[in-house]
Specification:
By secondary structure, this protein is mainly beta. The chain has no helices and eleven strands. The protein has a six-stranded antiparallel β-sheet, with no helix packed on it. A five-stranded mixed β-sheet has the order 7-6-9-4-11, with no helix packed on it. The radius of gyration is 14 Å and the shape is globular. It holds the Pfam family Ectoine_synth.
Length: 125
């Protein structure tokens, strides 16, 4: 049995916030589990080419939208989104408070992955 607190997790500055990486590839669970903080007022251009990701909002408010603007969905506590097609997307945190998500990746993250948000294309890992 593995027991790990948020304080014991690897903390990574992922690009526009912090990722508390509670389960990683080395834990041999077949997925990773993270508590992700998205800084208030940020907009992140993201894409996961090698991972599927599901996120469950636990606090804050924001939006996830497709690059072409054809769909935008509100994120608030109790809402889950799953990127089941390696979807490129914008993750936007409302300006008044951080957005906090529980994120699950398959295959699992190794641990140190970070986004490069200073480029024109969608950041990926």
């Amino acid at each position: 049995m593995l027991i790990r607190t948020k304080e014991e997790a690897l903390v990574v500055e992922w690009g526009n916030g912090l990722s508390h990486r509670l389960l990683l590839q080395a834990d041999r669970m077949g997925f990773s589990f993270c508590h992700t903080v998205v800084r208030a007022g940020t907009k992140s251009r993201l894409e996961y080419r090698r991972h599927l990701e599901a996120c469950y909002c636990i606090t804050g408010r924001g939006w996830i939208s497709l690059p072409d603007g054809s769909a935008t969905h509100e994120l608030r506590p109790g809402v889950l989104y799953a990127l089941d097609q390696h979807d490129a997307h914008f993750l936007i945190a409302a300006p008044d408070a951080d957005l906090e998500l529980i994120s699950v990746f398959n295959p699992p993250l190794q641990g140190g992955e970070r986004h490069n948000l200073d480029q024109d294309e969608f950041s990926h890992y």
